[in-house]
Each structure stands twice: as C-alpha cells, then as structure tokens.
Specification:
- One of its GO terms (molecular function) is delta(3)-delta(2)-enoyl-CoA isomerase activity.
- InterPro entries: ClpP/crotonase-like_dom_sf (IPR029045), ECH/Chromodomain_protein (IPR051053), Enoyl-CoA_hydra/iso (IPR001753), Enoyl-CoA_hydra_C (IPR014748).
- Its main location: other.
- This is ClpP/crotonase.
- It comes from Mortierella alpina (Oleaginous fungus).
- Strand 2, helix 1 (35-50) and strand 3 (56-61) form a beta-alpha-beta unit.
- The strands form 2 sheets. Strands 1, 2, 3, 4, 5, 7 and 10 form a 7-stranded mixed beta sheet that branches.
- The radius of gyration is 19 Å and the shape is globular.
- The chain has helices spanning 35-50, 77-82, 84-104, 164-169, 198-201, 215-222, 230-236, 248-260, 264-275, 279-297, 300-322, and strands at 10-15, 19-24, 56-61, 108-113, 152-156, 161-162, 174-177, 182-184, 228-229, 241-242.
- The protein contains 11 helices and 10 strands.
- Helix 3 runs antiparallel to helix 10 (279-297).
- It is an alpha/beta fold.
- The relative contact order is 0.15.
- Helices cover 42% and strands 13% of the residues.
- It has a single domain (10-322), classed as 2-enoyl-CoA Hydratase, Chain A, domain 1, CATH 3.90.226.10.
C-alpha cells in the first residue's frame, strides 16, 4: 500500500542514511489539528514505521507553532447534518490511531520544536558534509502488523506547543526544542480531559519506564492549564536538550543522522525492551481517555467553555486590529 498522494497537511522528506522528516504543514492555521490532519498523521506514522528506508523519524512543524492543538471552528451545514456523535467518532478513530502508532513506533522518534522553520534546501549533516535530500525516494505505506518490531523516533519541537501537541510529544523517544518554546494544555479551560495517555505518563507512575513530571507539576499542567517554558520542561525530564534557534535543525538532523547509522535491529530491540511492558497499559489508557473525551466534548459544559474561549479570542483579535 503506497502512501497517499494527498497528505497535504504534512511535508514528508526522506534524507540520506534513513532519516525521515515529517513536518506539520498548515502554518497559516498554526498547524491546528482537525480530523483530516489526524488521519494523515496516522498514515504518515504508519508509513515511517513500516518502511525499510526509514531508520530515524524527526517530527516537526512549519511556521510559528509546532501545533496549536485542536482546531476550534463553528460546524458547517454538512457537519451539523452529520451530527456531533458521528463527527466525534470519526475524529476519535483518527486520533486513537495516531496515539497507537506513537505507542508502538519501533524506531527512534525525535520531536523538534522550533519556530519559523522550513525544510526547503535542507541538507542532512554527515561527517563528510555531503548529505543531501533524497528526492528519488517515494514513501510507501504498508498495513500495520502489531507483532512486527518497528523503530525509534525524535520530536524536534517548534514552539509554542498546545494541547495534543504537548501530550503526544511525551510518547516520543527524544524531545529537542529552542529556548523560547512554550508548552500548554488548556483542557480544563475548554471543558475537555487529558488525552494521548498524559493522565498516566505525565504524573509519577512507578509502573511505567517513562514518567515526565511528577504528580504536582503534571496537575499544574493538566488540571490548572499552566504554561510551561522550555527550561521547565527540560528540568521535568520531557525535553532532552535546548538548542539555539540559529543552529537548531542543523543540530537535530546531525544527531538524527548519527543515530541512523547505528545497527537498526539493535535500536529496535533496545526500544522494545524499554517499551514492551507498557504497550497494553498505554493503549488501555488511550481508549479510556478517548471515551471520556467524547463525553466531555458533547457536554453542555464544554460547549459553553468553548464558546467563551472563542469569544475571548475574537475580542483579543479585535482589540489588536484596532491598535493598528
């Protein structure tokens, strides 16, 4: 099964040495997430996991935001006819797939968080300095086999990062960012709930190999909606390193390229050792969170909260324009 040709919300490049870069490509919408984006994200991850050409994945975004989280819009006439329950089931299926792909991803995923970046003309760093984009490599996607060991991932985060962009990042292997990136999960403000396994991954949880913040800081983020800085996230253990903006992607791609040169099966086997005991638990948590999120998003309380949020956003925009 070849990768769909209509992944227009992402830009995918396969660099030499097996480094794949998947970039959110809706900069005018601040890389906001809607059902189309979730669907394409899941398919892009599936391709990267199954392709023998990919050894390391870098996930990033074009524009000012890595992602601004869930896209909040007024439903159009066709969506109103389809109904809220049907719309949520569609979104939930796509979102669940993204989380499952991240949980089971067999290769190294690096998240790269940096603002105002584009991949045009990027060269892959190498010790010889001769790395270039592989334009001849056409991604292909295979069906998922859950018993098949797959790879490692890097998240190079572009800031700010909001909502699902923050929580999904915690499922990646390595996170790099720039000094002025920020991390925010306004779930309570919108009447939502935790998602992408953050209800268990963020607090201290001795049964998991990966816990990010400890209960107090996790509650500040998930229950109180506090915005965290890049340095705070580094201290919490979610961010591995902070690089200067000027050299950020060069540093990230250099590290990704070096990792891609390691024996690939050794990388997969070691990642499996780290993650094996928590796969089923994380998938159960993901299912529970998505079920509750459906209840929350269809509630009157959440509808009122979203309306107030959008009105406040509109008022801020009007005030800003009046000062021009």
């Amino acid at each position: 099964m070849s990768v769909p040709t209509n992944l227009d919300t992402f830009d995918i490049k396969l660099l030499e040495h097996g480094v794949a870069v998947i970039a959110f490509n809706r900069p005018k919408k601040y890389n906001a997430l809607n059902p189309q984006v979730y669907d394409q994200w899941g398919r892009a991850l599936e391709w990267a996991a199954k392709s023998d050409d990919v050894r390391v994945l870098v996930l990033t975004g074009y524009g000012k935001y890595f992602t601004s989280g869930q896209e909040l819009t007024i439903p159009d006439s066709s969506e109103l006819e389809e109904g809220a329950d049907a719309l949520y089931k569609k979104r939930s299926a796509y979102t669940t797939k993204v989380v499952e792909e991240l949980i089971r991803f067999p290769k190294l995923i690096i998240a790269a968080i940096q603002g105002n970046w584009e991949m045009q003309g990027v060269k892959t760093p190498s010790s010889q300095g001769s790395g270039t984009l592989r334009q001849d490599a056409t991604p292909t996607c295979c069906s998922t086999n859950r018993n098949d060991p797959r790879g490692v991932s890097f998240f190079a985060l572009l800031g700010p990062v909001i909502g699902f962009g923050v929580t999904s990042t915690a499922l990646c292997d390595v996170v790099y960012t720039v000094p002025d990136a920020t991390f925010n999960t306004p779930f309570m403000q919108l009447g939502f709930c935790a998602e992408a396994c953050s209800s268990i991954v963020f607090p201290r949880c001795v049964s998991l190999s990966k816990h990010i913040m400890g209960s107090s800081r996790a509650n500040e983020m998930l229950l109180m909606g506090r915005k965290f800085t890049a340095e705070e996230m580094r201290e919490a253990g979610m961010v591995a390193r902070i690089f200067p903006k000027e050299s950020f992607m060069s540093e990230v791609l250099k590290l990704a390229t070096n990792a891609a040169k390691f024996p690939p099966q050794a990388m997969k086997d070691t990642k499996a050792l780290i993650r094996d005991r928590e796969y089923d638990l994380l998938e159960q948590i993901n299912k529970r969170e998505m079920e509750l999120l459906g209840v929350r998003m269809s509630s009157d309380e959440s509808a009122q909260a979203i309306m107030e949020f959008m009105m406040a956003k509109y008022d801020r925009k009007e005030k800003a324009q009046s000062k021009l």
